[in-house]
Write a structure and sequence with these properties.
The chain has 322 residues and is α/β, with parallel strands linked by helices. It folds into 2 domains: 163 residues, Rossmann fold, CATH 3.40.50; 117 residues, no CATH class. It contains 11 helices and 12 strands. The protein has a 7-stranded mixed beta sheet with strand order 6-2-1-7-8-12-11. Strands 3-5-4 form a 3-stranded antiparallel beta sheet. A hairpin with a 2-residue loop joins β9 and β10. α10 packs across α11. The protein is globular and about 60 Å long. The protein starts with 15 loop residues before the first helix and ends with a strand.
Length: 322
């Protein structure tokens, strides 16, 4: 049943995801969605449940407007045992998440939720969990995204085509997730009720390391070779290490700029290669920093595409007891 909502809601924030989900020039998806990179999310949730059967606290940094945290909640078999914190530095994203209104449209990775073509068991499980925590509502009169009206016209022209549906977070789900304004660089100061069993920081690491490879290779941005990326990563991983409980996991994204790095002036010449005029590190810098702690081990690998090739990179690291 589709629920009617108060269309006079004061909600005025456009979704941090949906606002960017449709690039106004290319009309292509450009940001996050529910269940982004579902295989990684599914594996991460399985590891959390296995290692923390009595529950734990889960930190989702760069949480945007809450879709990643809601996705994690939807995949947990016993969500009432877990506390999830969705943390983002942008106030408008947090306000949007707290309002609890979302859209799912066919441009994004979560289109399987509305197209009635669930192809895998993982998608079926995700859709079932999604339905438990969100209810479908009528289209609000206030904007949830910036998708051009001509694309919505496709649905009006074809009654068998569902372009977009709208949802509201159910009260129970609101009790399991806290939406908080914050930055992963302050993770050491963040207080939780219990030891932290998982830290998600997916596809946002390049902001800290000034490593925007998309901008550099596709738009001609000048690479910053002055910043010491090793020291930035070392400081971050040290804080992550202190915050995680034994057997806790650190979950990364699958974007290239999360795993391949511009060579800065501190990088030995023997560890870099010139690619299309840009100095790139040959060694897996993030892997090196994590392994240097002496107690992080890779638990899940996935192919990451960079330029014309791809390499398997670790997306989930687990803190060992040693």
């Amino acid at each position: 049943m589709i629920t009617a909502i108060n269309n006079n809601s004061p909600q005025s924030n456009i979704s941090f995801k949906s606002y960017y989900a449709c690039n106004p020039k290319t009309h292509l998806p450009a940001s996050s969605s529910f269940f982004g990179d579902l295989p990684t999310l599914k594996t991460a949730v399985s590891l959390i449940e296995k290692n923390f059967p009595n529950g734990t606290d889960i930190l989702v940094y760069a949480g945007s407007n809450g879709e990643e945290a809601i996705s994690i909640l939807s995949l947990l078999r016993k969500p009432d045992k877990f506390n999830i914190y969705s943390i983002d530095p942008f106030k408008n994203a947090i306000e949007y998440a707290k309002d609890g209104f979302f859209s799912v449209h066919w441009f994004a990775d979560d289109a399987f939720l509305i197209n009635n073509k669930l192809k895998t068991d993982a998608e079926k499980k995700a859709a079932k969990g999604f339905a438990k925590h969100l209810r479908e509502i009528e289209r609000p009169r206030f904007d949830l995204n910036n998708i051009p009206e001509e694309f919505r016209a496709l649905e009006r022209e074809n009654p068998y085509f569902t372009f977009e549906r709208f949802y509201q977070l159910k009260p129970f789900a609101r009790t399991r997730i806290q939406f908080i304004e914050g930055d992963i660089r302050d993770i050491g100061k963040f207080k939780t009720e219990r030891p932290v069993g998982a830290i998600f920081f997916r596809n946002a690491l390049y902001h800290l390391t000034d490593n925007d490879l998309v901008g550099i290779f596709n738009h001609g941005y000048k690479p910053n070779t002055e910043v010491n990326r090793y020291e930035i990563l070392r400081a971050l991983i040290n804080d992550v290490d202190k915050k995680l409980a034994p057997n806790g996991i650190f979950v990364l994204g699958n974007h290239a700029q999360e795993h391949f790095y511009v060579a800065d002036k501190y990088t030995p010449k023997t560890r870099q290669e010139n690619i299309r005029g840009i100095p790139i590190r040959l060694d897996p810098l993030l892997d090196t920093v994590l392994k240097e702690t002496g107690h992080f081990e890779s638990r899940y690998m996935q192919k990451v595409t960079f330029l014309n090739g791809s390499l398997e990179r670790p997306l989930i690291w687990q803190k060992t007891n040693s």
